[in-house]
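Exercise 7. Given the components listed, write out the predicted structure of the assembled complex. Treat all entries as one system.
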Amino acid sequence: MTRADLLLALPILYPLAGVALSLLAWRRPLVQRGVSLAASFGLLLSAVMLVAAVYDGTVLATQFGAWPAPFGISFVGDMLSAAMVLITGLMAVAVGIYGLAGDASAREHAFYHPLYQGLLLGVTGAFLTGDIFNLYVWFEVMLISSFGLLALGGTKAQLDAGVKYVTLNLVVTTQFLIAVAFLYGATGTLNMADLARVLPTVENQGLVTVLALLFLVAFGAKAAVFPLFFWLPAAYHTASAPIVAIFAALLTKVGVYAILRTFTLMFDGDAGVTAPIVGIIAAATMITGVLGAAAHFDIRRILSFHIISQIGYMLLGIAIATPLAVGGAILYVIHHIVVKANLFLVAGAIHRAGGSFHLKEIGGLYRGLPLLAILFAIPALSLAGFPPLSGFWAKFGVIKASLDAGHLALAATGLAVGLLTLYSMVKIWNEAFWKAAPEMSVAAERRWTSEPGTRRLMLAPIVALAAITLTIGLWAEPFVDYSLRAGEQLLDKSAYINAVFPTETASGSHGREVAR
Amino acid sequence: MEPVFALAFGVMIAVAAYLILSRNVLRILLGLLVLGNAANLAIFLAGRLGSRVPPLVEAGETTIASSANPLPQALILTAIVISFSLVAFTAVLFETTHKRLGTLDPDAMREAETPPGSQRDGDEGRA
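Answer.
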């Protein structure tokens, strides 16, 4: 076993061990907590090692069971996957700590920790795999864990949301599987690096475009883009705060990652057809998300619609597909995961302190909790793209790239949606922190100050994530540099392909048809 | 044989779409089941039909020349297990929802998203 094998296997093994061990200890919540936190820290640590190994632009690859590619299942770590795994590790730890606060013991009796680690397992696997069928399997691991987490409380609203979430996601994942089947029928391979070599040689390029669109629908629904986003605002607001925070951080971003990976590695040949479609989808996604948010007064529903709106910016970068645009989209994903998870964590703290998620029922929190108000303002302003916070640099990259490419309408949409985002954030600020408090929220505020343990567990991750947002904003250079280099690496596929097929040149792949 | 299988795949997708669009969660569940099996059929079809020789390597040989394609079988086996477990979970979820909400019509389930006009939109916050 070489160093590359270990570096790529460890981020999978930690959450896998977390699932198994916390299931074994299912009668002992305290043991489960320890196991779950240890696994999350292990994931973070192994992700740091992975990023350090790929930082200079090398691509690591390993073949499981030592079957040579394309016969076995490859795992590949390039700069994008490593960054995604690192941010997953960060979220795992932050939300994991937050999840110990409040009504944690009720969750823990319903297999919260095994499901949480299962979600991380699926997400990490999806980021690292180099095999399209294996990607489907990781999607399912992620999905079944998210089903369980969503229905964890068993309230009526959660069951209702679960019916819709489960049905729509199952249909979409099955459609993904059918697309994989057609892709295999057309090319005879499932290895993504091999597909990158074989797809340009397929005679019927129209078929390749159809396949690309099938994958766009499947991944687009996962990423909650227009018009396939309905499952997200129907479900997210019913789950409890730590669960919705990890959902908001990771689930849709796996869809974005899958689009980014397949459309730079495999389906980059027919940009003339797909790029304009992705551009239109991006604009429509930004607009519908932000308008949906403007109509709501439940903090969680406002934030859920903003997930959709922000996905539009990432797609915008993918549609433009210049090095700056792809780099900007990668920075956007990284920034967004931190900010969005943090906003949902703050929403949970507001609920704890104010007694409700509904803006009409809370108020005046600034007077008693100025720290929470500031901790809300940092991610909220970053989401809207205020300089010098992280959102500014991410938006700047994507919009600069669309201006450079001459897509003025798309750039204008991005800027206008940024303003409307600010409207929603100011609405939450005014209603929750600024206006006079209604009667009931005063009692809740007293409860918040009377439980220091819960308060610390909730505030520590919020402070840490806000610090990351500030760091990306004020010391942007290394993050921007990393994202741009990751984008260049994505657009130049040779490093990825050579890592999976080290001995061959980039052309020869004969003998596969016969053996398969 | 391929056209027959392709036609069967199309019919199964149509049946699944019809069932999933209905207003009864039991039919939706059956639709998901048919859809999952349609996907399995697509994988089987994509692996080329033809030889029925089992993909076993004879003693002394290192390759097999004219056997059935083993890869789709491995893929389908994986997909069957996954779709079976997901459908089982879905059945339990639908059953629990039916018990708690007293309806089989997903359109009548309005706990998470209340229709426009009502004061509170599905706030579980104080529960």
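Discussion: Residues 3-503 of chain A form one domain. Chain A touches chain B through 49 residues (CB under 8 Å).
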